Amino acid sequence: MSLLAPEALASFLDRVTASAEVELEWVDLLSQLEYVGFRKIAKAVPYDRVSLETLRHASEEASHAYLLKAAAEKNGLPPRSWREGRFSAAGWRYFQGLDRGIEAAVADPALCYPLVSVAVERRVLALYPAYLERTRIPDVRRAVERILVEERAHARLFEDRALPADAVTAAWRLEERLWAEFVPEAVALAASPG
Ligand SMILES: [Fe+2]
Ligand SMILES: [Fe+2]
Fold it and tell me: pTM score > 0.90 for this model?
C-alpha cells in the first residue's frame, strides 16, 4: 500500500472528517499519537545521553500533542481521557505494532527510537499536508501548519544520522503494513454511531 495513492488518502481523510464530531475525534487521535511519540523519546533515550537535540525533539512532540488537543477542546471536544476516543484503540495498535516490531528487529536498542521516528515522520509528511487541505476548522489549521514546519525539521534530523539503509527500509515496510491495517479500521470507526 506504500504511502497511499493521493486518491486513497483523500478518500480516507474524507471519511475521518465526515462530520465535525468525527473530525474532532480524528484531531484527538493525532494528539494522542503525538504524545506517544513524545513518550517514545523520553523512554528510549537514556538519561545520560539526552542532548539539546533530544530535548528539542521531545518538547516539540509534546507541544504538537498539546496544540492538537487544545484546538479540539476549543471546538467542542469534551475534556476526557484518550482512552475514550473513538479512534484511540486503533491508534494504539498502530503505534505499538511499530514500536514493538522495530524493537524486535534491531539488535542495537539505540536504533529503535530513530527508526520509529523515520517511519512515523514519513507518514506524517504525507498525511498532514493532505489533511491541512481539508480541514475547515481554523484552530486546527493553525495548529497543523505550525506542526508541519517542525515535522519537516524532524525528518531532516534523522536523514543526517546515516541509519542503516536496510533497517530504514524494513521500518518503512512495517509501518506501511500497520497503516494499511489502521485505515479500514478507522474508516469503520468513523462511520459507527459514536
Ligand atoms: Fe509531531
Ligand atoms: Fe516529529
Answer: yes
pLDDT value of residue 63: 98
The pLDDT value recorded for residue 78 is 97
Going from the Cα of 189 to the center of ligand 2, the distance in angstroms, rounded, reads 26
Q: What is the pLDDT of residue 22?
A: 97
What is the number of the ligand closest to the CA of 151? Answer: 2
**Which fold, 6-191?**
Ferritin (1.20.1260)
For residue 73, the CA-to-ligand 2 centroid distance in Å is: 22
Show the low-confidence residues of the chain (pLDDT under 70): 1-2, 4
Report the separation in Å between the CA atom of 135 and the middle of ligand 1, taken as the mean of its atom positions: 18
Interval between CA 151 and ligand 1 midpoint (Å): 6
- How does DSSP classify residue 111? G
Give the residue among 123, 143, 171 at the shortest CA–CA distance from 9. Answer: 123
The pocket of ion ligand 1, defined by CB under 5 A, consists of 34, 61, 64
pLDDT of residue 44: 92
